[in-house]
Design a protein that fits this description.
about 25% helix; 4 helices; alpha+beta; 4-stranded antiparallel sheet; 7-stranded antiparallel sheet
Amino acid sequence: MRRHALTTRLLAAATALALSAAPAAAQLTASWYTGVPDGGGPAGTHPTLGGPLQNVFCTTQLTQIRFTDRTVLGNFLAANCPAGSVPASALQGYSVAVRIVGTLWAAAPGTYTFGGRIDDGNRFWINGALVRNAWHDQLNDYSFAANLVEGANTVQFDYYANSHGSSVFTMALPTGVAIVPEPATLSLLATGLALAALATRRRRA
């Protein structure tokens, strides 16, 4: 009886430890701004949208970065921001900037390659290191390599859509990297602990 009680307590303690060590679900927080921050544009300034990063009109959560055109971008803002908060230009998918911050989860340490398509300016930081700086008008595919540690990695992605173009911002995460950590590891651990406890009870029965 005492051994059974001890096994139960050990199982509970091990499960609690696994839960405490598991990563919290990490989403990316996107702060949306009017204008182009820090003088973005073809020649370092924009004829109509210059100035610092300011005038936040909405904050949203992202589980992916996939704005494939200005209509998708405008529809996202209309659906996720308070009514009346989004400037008319942003609803049409231009003259808008965003700063995305949060955590990416890596299954193992190493160098990972990120990529996607962009229109217009963009700059990316991972774990405080600037890994891409293309703060100017453009429309092209991009890629960059970054070193990630196992587990949590802090990120910041800046992007602006100019007053012309298609307003595209997509990012494909490499294999082994996720915005929301997979719960499989925790589930397998809990299942293994439960089976071990059951086997112990059967041997002693």
